[in-house]
Amino acid sequence: MDENRRPRPARVRRGSSPEVAARLQRSRRRALDRRAAVREREKIVTAAVRDYINAWHAIRLVQQRRDTDIDDLKRRIEDVTVRAENEIAGHEQAQEVAAAAIQEQGHTDNEIAEFLEISTKHARQLVSASRRTEATKPSSPQPDTDPEQVGVPHVHESEDSDPLVETGRTISPGLGEGNDAIP
To answer: What percent helix, strand, coil does the chain show, rounded to 5?
Structure first.
């Protein structure tokens, strides 16, 4: 805008020479050029700041979307994990029932282990867990006769019982102590 403006013609005062007028005109032109350059630099800086802030805002939006997506994926992973654990528990219970059914046919723990191709210890654990499951199934409600024992489960111990199995924990060879997940 100012670049196209022509500098005003210098007023020539009485007694001034054309050389003085030309110098004044060049000086005014340099001042106008400097002001135009300053305005141009300000426009460039303003545009750069605007670009920076727009990029910052875009980054924040991407980060928020990323965090939301990650949270959704974590929830989905947890849902899948819970569903799988429930399904596995059902299959493990079916294994327990199968082992107990074999035992009910008069087979020993060693024979059960041989049929199922598992360790004898694991066969005992399956049969024991099946017994615990059967014991916890509600049959006909019977009132407790001992008021001190209300709500306290009765634990039947036998020579086959394993204290780790009673707590849901076992020791697997090479795996250490933990929940036994042998198929």
So the answer is: 65, 5, 30
